[in-house]
Amino acid sequence: VRLMKHTYDFSKYIAVTNRQLAGSDDSYFSQIEKIAALEPHAVILREKELNREEYAVFAARVKKICDKYGVTLFIHSHIDTARALCCKHLHLSFADFCCNTEKHENDNSDLYDADNFLAHFVKISVSCHSIDEVRKAAKLGATQIVLGNIFETDCKKGLPGKGLDFLKAACLESSGLPVYAIGGISPANIGDVLNAGAAGGCMMSGFMNM
What pTM was estimated for this model as a whole? Predict the structure, then answer.
């Protein structure tokens, strides 16, 4: 870990978790500790196959690890778990984000008033897959965009990457919000991602398999 931390600047990366790549739960939490020790920009606790109760247990343990290293943890989709853990960073799909914000847009209420779920969070990260989604997420109050997929990735075999020109265009349309590229991101291409205007990149297998 020390060698990797010395070699790469992980402050430009968001680690996306996947317990299926780690084997046992003990190996998983050990891997999370290794990742947090590298001090990435953030960790997104993905784990979509876990039910609500299981996710809450994992989130509590991962939050302790992230807090230990001063690493930001984004809870993925589970709004109630984020609130229960007093976690102020939330990551949502574009559809879920719109579902929780458009009802407030339509009744002319303040997006960040006390009755709006966004008021409970410091940062709202939103997954986007088109320029239109980036524009709408920015309009509705997102604070960070995760844009994919930029390169072809094993997570979505057969789906072509949308490329660096797409990434560059999205960054220009993000209203100044930081954009983190996802899909095939690695130390070999992070420079190209940054040159396209992104704040950094999200990496899953590179972190979970190191």
Answer: 0.91
